[in-house]
Amino acid sequence: MAIERTLAIIKPDAVGRGLAGDILKHIHEAKFKIVAIKSLRLTKAEAEGFYAVHRERPFFKDLTEFMTSGKLIVMALECENAIARWRDTMGATDPAKAAHGTIRKTFGTSIQNNCTHGSDAAETARAEIGYFFSGMELV
Q1: pTM exceeds 0.90
Q2: Beta-carbon count within 10 A of 105 CB
Q3: Domain boundaries along the sequence of the chain
Q4: CA–centroid distance for 29 within its chain
Q5: Which DSSP symbol is given to 63?
Q6: Sign of the CA dihedral 92, 96, 100, 105?
Q7: Which active-site residues does the annotation give?
Q8: Cα–Cα distance measured from residue 70 to residue 16, given in angstroms and rounded to the nearest whole number
Q9: E-strand spans in the chain?
Q10: C-alpha pair distances (Å), 127 with each of 3, 24, 53, 99, 134
Q11: Tens-digit pLDDT profile for residues 50-103
């Protein structure tokens, strides 16, 4: 397996509920290397830019409002097969359908308030990581 990187976000619902430490514990226990990490609050324009691929979808407005509703933590994670492993660690988008022990099953309360985001493919991961981190931050 190749070493790859993925973007991970601890969303505003989780940060607001004080769950960042618990989610970081899951990340460490899953043996991810945190290459870069920062806490920030997205502006409306930044959220719309990040989720531009969903601009025509009916949930776009609610999604961008949610992602600007509070602080979030963004990370570049690295390990073998990082994209699939992070998605497995997070669990299904709907916490009710997520596997036992996953982040979303444990902490999520709805499809929107599911605590975490992760890239879905290598190309997406490169673009998403580049959206939040400069090359100097990824050394």
Answers
A1: yes
A2: 18
A3: 3-134
A4: 17
A5: H
A6: positive
A7: 117
A8: 7
A9: 3-10, 33-40, 72-80, 116-118
A10: 17, 23, 12, 28, 11
A11: 999 999 999 999 999 999 999 999 999 999 999 999 999 999 999 999 999 999
